[in-house]
Amino acid sequence: MGVTTPGTEIPARVEVIRDALAVAGHELVEAVGHDDAALSSVHDPRLVMHLRDVHSEWLAAGFAEDPGQDRVVPYFFPTAAMLGPLPSQRAAAVHARAGQFCYDTMTLVGPGTYAAARAAVDCALTAVDLIGDGATVAYALCRPPGHHVTREGYGGSCYLNNAALAAQRLRDHGAAKVAVIDLDAHHGNGTAAIFYERDDVLYGSVHVDPGAGWFPHVVGFADETGSGEGAGTTRNEPLSPGSDDAVWCEAVARLVASVTAFSAEAVVVSLGVDAAADDPESPLLVSADGYRSAGRMLGQLELPSVVVQEGGYHLPSLGGLVCAYLDGHASEAIHE
């Protein structure tokens, strides 16, 4: 709301998860670089180029000195409310162009943002490659998260949609139908939007009710079920603030049943653990046992599974929550 506050989506998130997984005995596999062409499978190339170039353009415009902001922060948003029936052109000024791709003011772009987001994509795609090589389940330690990124816009502390890219790559590798199950505390509006009109990818999400005032505020409701060829392939399970393991796991069970009914041949799990009771970014009260139960339910599908890290911001509990989910999901070694 125009005030600088400390971020919670910080590099230490990766470190605490990685260290916890190492202690638990999980195998570490380094991510392999993938061609940039993969990005256009779910993202508009203009979005990718914007993320790649906008920070250097921002610095060249002198904004680090005047007004003294060294991060890209949009201030102008050419929404449908502004444009009405008018056509929209590419903004000439970089400070205006920022808001043509970013839909909030909390998702800043700095000198290493694109490199980090691009590396997160490589983590997700490497996990898919491991599945192709015969692994039953592979976990991608992605940071920054990605499920709020649409085809043409980023926000919600997300820049490129790792889970959507993994789902598309599974399709490209031969899975006729793929399910994306989103356990993050917030609705993955980006993933939902990318697949909303498609009948080959099911999107299911359990999250805090946006109608109770939680991000992404205007989408993520139960009556959003897909459109066109994708009618019936979106399922949202919005929960009241304060929902605990019992309520949350019942919703997860319904999503798992929808995967079976969809006849999915592979699963992508958007593993946000910010639904945990100690997490500062949501009012849900899920415990490590709840995450372990969710992992067990999804593992019982016995489908090739790519688990992609999304949110989770309480550093003291973060690693244990991820381990709890993976312990529940896995019947054999997990590759990180």
Brief overview:
By secondary structure, this protein is α/β, with parallel strands linked by helices. It has helices spanning 12-23, 45-60, 80-83, 94-101, 113-132, 162-172, 189-195, 245-262, 288-299, 315-329, and strands at residues 137-140, 178-182, 201-208, 234-239, 266-271, 305-309.
The neighbouring-strand order within the major sheet is: 1-6-5-2-3-4
Structural domain count: 2
Element string (H = helix, E = strand): HHHHHEHEHEEHEHEH
Global geometry: globular
How would you characterize the overall build of this protein?
There is one protein chain. The protein has 336 residues and is α/β, with parallel strands linked by helices. The chain has two domains: 241 residues, Histone deacetylase domain (Arginase, Chain A); 52 residues, no CATH class. It is built from ten helices and six strands, in the order H-H-H-H-H-E-H-E-H-E-E-H-E-H-E-H. The protein has a six-stranded parallel sheet, sandwiched between helices. Helix 1 crosses helix 10 and helix 9 packs parallel to helix 10. The C terminus is likely disordered.
